[in-house]
């Protein structure tokens, strides 16, 4: 696939290690060493500053700045305004000076550089020896973490050990809002800076959206604290002090930064059309852009200071943080014997997924880059439900529920978007950070209508595995009915067959635009409507009061439900006699291109080909037909899945980082074990080895979740599109053993796969599962099952 590994970091099963510093890998390392806790994230930039190439990044989930999109002509339905996650405050800001020389690794003489991200504990440590121009040598150790327990807290510890002298070091420690990356303009003013007791505080204000962030810190010292005056600049607040160092002895100070990012409380009630130019036929009050209703400066300032008054200590916070990670690894580790690279890789993926999101706030979602970079503007896509949700269902069910609650909290925006597109119901956005459509490209914002179906898929998957009927019959059902309404209103009939389908759409494969009857869209819509009808029947018989309440709230008519059933039952699916689905009308007649004829110098195609040229062949960007065959695997026979894999795999360009994992999962399912292993080859190491040459922009967070999927759904053979969990485990022939654990129905289910057998065992509670087509009861005694010959890689 044209991907080449850059093997820069050292192999270790429990750590990511950088030995020696290569500035050419500086930005990549900043991404790799990113830390986060769902509430906030910080890239791995140097605490002490660096004048070389860098991308200093500090982000707060859901904290964004407003944007205005400039279209030469803005037709109805075009998105006019949006929002991007904004770079905020560098709470690690430190400057160290000895004999008038300020430490800067771009120009300083240094040795023994080593940086280690300990995956077991979530602690990032960096050490090196600095030799000043005057010949003084001091060993420096920088330690940091973002607390997974108290998520407003980021912590830093700096230790200095003079090796050949005794003397003073001047230190500046503070908080800096002047950071910005890639020549982007700074979005901040800082109207307030104070020292309150021993707490230093600064209030940042975004220039356009007028949102506020209060950043604070306190310092701890080994002995008596030096005098700590407030020093400030336009966008900076902090302090300066001097430490007296003794040769051969270590001296350290610790910084506890407590941050509060002001929330958006809502939108102006008379301006619901926020991001759209609205057709006059749509009865919405106003078409200009409303202001978000934000927490005020005083509220944010006071909340930040109240949090900072908690007199916790560095040692107390790091102990709680380590305990959090110990619990994660004890319960939900994945172990691969015989493959050191993927062992390190999958633990790194699990680590980043827990950092990115653990369900502390249902108004937050998962951006495509998490909190590790500015790319994609912190926006969530359909990937959340299609790729990420399963990880959280099996590792942190409450977090999974909160991801779905985010969609409910933005249901009103999805309703407005549907109206703007001349439809009913709810059309969820292809890209969003605030619930509104944030994608300025009309062909994506208006034609990629599969996000609503992905949300419905997520609700169904959550129901299958968790069985949370309170959620399903409440928020879940309301979303489902509105999603079904949208699809029924958007569907049109073929004048020759009277079948329903969707015209003028773009599926998952973004190399084909304005297509008709995209199979993925048609099938996803059909399944969404079918599930809405199933839930309606369940509620009528088992939760009639809630159903009647929902009918009244939505003004839902029986005639609508009948129309739902009609559209779903007559959905058009293009399929040949050999079982191969045609991706969309006319796809089989498109000119063929041999992917081997495309030169590496032409990649990525968006950068080197004329835009319209991409759409003129049968080349696909990523799995489209194969995607719905994965999502609803148990709807199709192995023969049908194999026929489609063999047709579509040779014409897939894998221009999306999400693509290889789905191919690997399906290859495992149909017995193509070598191909499964090949596609998996870089799934866990996409960022660690910078396969796409763009890790410097931030981590591929949703692709990281796909790596977990690749192991558990691929080699574990797990399927979740039915009420009973199903497994068909296999294993790459180079591996000796694979073991993983998942939370399921209140039990921790352990799965161990070796060359000949697979063993299932719970922590005590009995569950039922289908393994290789047979139903088993699994409990604390365990069940050992021989692997059928078909699933043994040879």
What do you see in this structure?
This protein is α+β, with helices and mostly antiparallel strands. It is 30% helix and 24% strand. The chain has a 9-stranded antiparallel β-sheet, with helices on one face. It has a 5-stranded antiparallel β-sheet with strand order 8-7-13-18-17, with no helix packed on it. A 5-stranded antiparallel β-sheet has the order 22-28-29-30-33. Helix 6 (397-409) packs across helix 10 (469-490). The longest helix is centred in the C-terminal third of the chain and has 24 residues, at 519-542. The radius of gyration is 27 Å and the shape is globular.
Would you spell out the secondary-structure blueprint of this structure?
Layout: E1 15-19, H1 26-32, E2 35-36, E3 40-42, E4 58-60, E5 64-68, E6 81-85, E7 94-98, E8 101-102, E9 109-118, E10 123-131, E11 137-146, E12 153-162, E13 167-176, E14 188-196, E15 199-206, E16 212-221, E17 231-233, E18 236-245, E19 251-261, E20 264-267, E21 292-294, H2 297-308, H3 314-332, E22 334-337, H4 340-356, H5 383-395, H6 397-409, H7 411-420, H8 442-445, H9 450-466, H10 469-490, E23 492-493, E24 500-501, E25 503-505, E26 515-516, H11 519-542, H12 544-554, H13 558-569, H14 605-608, H15 625-631, H16 638-648, H17 659-669, H18 673-680, H19 701-715, E27 726-727, E28 737-744, E29 747-753, E30 757-762, E31 767-771, E32 774-778, E33 783-786
Parallel strand pairs: 27-31
Antiparallel strand pairs: 1-9, 2-3, 3-4, 5-6, 7-8, 7-13, 9-10, 10-11, 11-12, 12-19, 13-18, 14-15, 15-16, 16-19, 17-18, 20-21, 22-28, 23-24, 25-26, 28-29, 29-30, 30-33, 31-32
């Amino acid at each position: 696939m044209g991907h080449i590994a850059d093997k820069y970091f050292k192999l270790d099963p429990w750590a990511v290690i950088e030995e020696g510093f290569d500035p050419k890998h500086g930005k990549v390392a900043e991404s790799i060493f990113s830390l986060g806790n769902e509430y906030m994230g910080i890239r791995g930039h140097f605490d002490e500053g660096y004048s070389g190439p860098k991308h200093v990044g500090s982000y707060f989930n859901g904290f964004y700045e407003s944007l205005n999109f400039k279209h030469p002509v803005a037709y109805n339905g075009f998105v006019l305004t949006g929002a991007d996650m904004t770079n905020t405050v560098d709470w690690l800001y430190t400057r160290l000076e000895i004999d008038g020389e300020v430490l800067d690794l771009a120009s300083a003489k240094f040795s023994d550089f080593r940086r280690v991200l300990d995956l077991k504990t979530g602690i990032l440590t960096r050490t090196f020896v600095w030799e000043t121009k005057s010949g003084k040598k001091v060993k420096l150790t920088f330690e940091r973490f973002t607390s997974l327990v108290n998520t407003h807290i980021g912590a830093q510890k700096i230790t200095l050990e003079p090796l050949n002298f005794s003397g003073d070091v001047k230190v500046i420690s503070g908080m800096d809002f002047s950071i910005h990356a890639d020549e982007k303009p700074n979005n901040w003013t800082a109207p307030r800076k104070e020292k309150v007791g021993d707490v230093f505080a600064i209030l940042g204000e975004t220039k356009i959206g007028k949102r506020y962030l209060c950043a604070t810190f306190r310092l701890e010292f080994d002995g008596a604290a030096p005098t700590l005056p407030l020093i400030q600049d336009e966008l900076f607040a902090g302090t300066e002090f001097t430490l007296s160092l003794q040769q051969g002895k270590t001296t350290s100070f610790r910084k506890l930064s407590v941050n509060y990012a002001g929330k958006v409380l809502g939108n102006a009630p008379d301006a619901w059309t926020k991001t759209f130019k609205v057709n006059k036929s749509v009865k919405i009050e106003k078409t200009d852009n409303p202001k978000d209703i934000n927490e005020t400066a005083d509220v944010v300032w006071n909340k930040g200071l109240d949090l900072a008054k908690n007199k916790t200590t560095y040692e107390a916070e790091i102990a709680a943080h380590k305990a959090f990670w110990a619990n994660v690894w004890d319960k939900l580790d994945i172990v691969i014997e015989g493959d050191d690279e993927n062992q390190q890789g999958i633990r790194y993926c699990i680590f980043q997924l827990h950092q990115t999101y653990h369900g502390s706030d249902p108004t937050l979602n998962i951006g495509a880059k998490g909190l590790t970079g500015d790319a994609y503007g912190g926006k969530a896509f359909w990937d959340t439900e299609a790729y990420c949700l399963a990880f959280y269902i099996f590792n942190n069910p409450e977090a999974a529920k909160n991801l779905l609650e985010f969609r409910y909290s933005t249901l009103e925006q999805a309703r407005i978007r549907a109206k703007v597109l001349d439809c009913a119901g709810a059309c969820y956005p292809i890209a969003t950070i605030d619930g509104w459509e944030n994608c300025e490209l009309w062909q994506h914002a208006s034609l990629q209508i599969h996000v609503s179906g992905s949300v419905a898929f997520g609700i169904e998957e959550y129901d299958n595995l968790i069985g949370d009927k309170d959620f399903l019959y409440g928020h879940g059902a309301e979303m489902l009915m509105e999603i079904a309404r949208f699809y029924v209103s958007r569907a049109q009939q073929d004048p020759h067959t009277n079948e329903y389908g969707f015209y003028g759409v773009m599926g998952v494969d973004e190399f084909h635009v304005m297509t008709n009857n995209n199979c993925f869209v048609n099938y996803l819509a059909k399944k969404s409507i079918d599930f809405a009808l199933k839930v309606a029947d369940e509620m009528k018989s088992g939760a009639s009061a809630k159903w009647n309440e929902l009918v009244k709230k939505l003004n839902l008519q029986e005639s609508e439900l009948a129309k739902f059933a009609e559209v779903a039952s007559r959905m058009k699916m293009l399929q040949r006699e050999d079982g191969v689905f045609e991706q969309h009308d006319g796809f089989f007649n498109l000119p063929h291109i041999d992917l081997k004829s495309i030169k590496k110098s032409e990649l990525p195609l968006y950068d080197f080909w004329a835009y319209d040229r991409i759409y003129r062949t049968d080349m696909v960007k990523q799995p489209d037909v194969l995607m719905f065959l994965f999502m609803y695997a148990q709807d199709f026979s192995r023969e049908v899945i194999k026929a489609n894999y063999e047709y579509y795999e040779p014409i897939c360009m894998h221009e999306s980082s999400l693509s290889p994992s789905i191919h690997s999962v399906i290859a495992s399912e149909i017995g193509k074990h070598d191909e499964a292993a090949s596609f998996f080859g870089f799934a866990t190491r996409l960022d660690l080895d910078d396969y796409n040459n763009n890790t410097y922009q931030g981590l591929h967070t949703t692709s990281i979740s796909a790596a977990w999927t690749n192991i558990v759904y691929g080699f574990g053979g797990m399927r979740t599109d039915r009420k009973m969990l199903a497994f068909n485990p296999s294993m790459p022939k180079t591996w000796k053993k694979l073991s993983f654990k998942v939370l399921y129905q209140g039990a921790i289910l352990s799965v161990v796969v070796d060359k000949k057998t697979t063993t299932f065992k719970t922590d005590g509670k009995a569950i039922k599962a289908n393994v290789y087509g047979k139903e088993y009861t699994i409990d604390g005694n365990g069940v050992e099952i021989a692997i059928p010959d078909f699933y043994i890689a040879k």
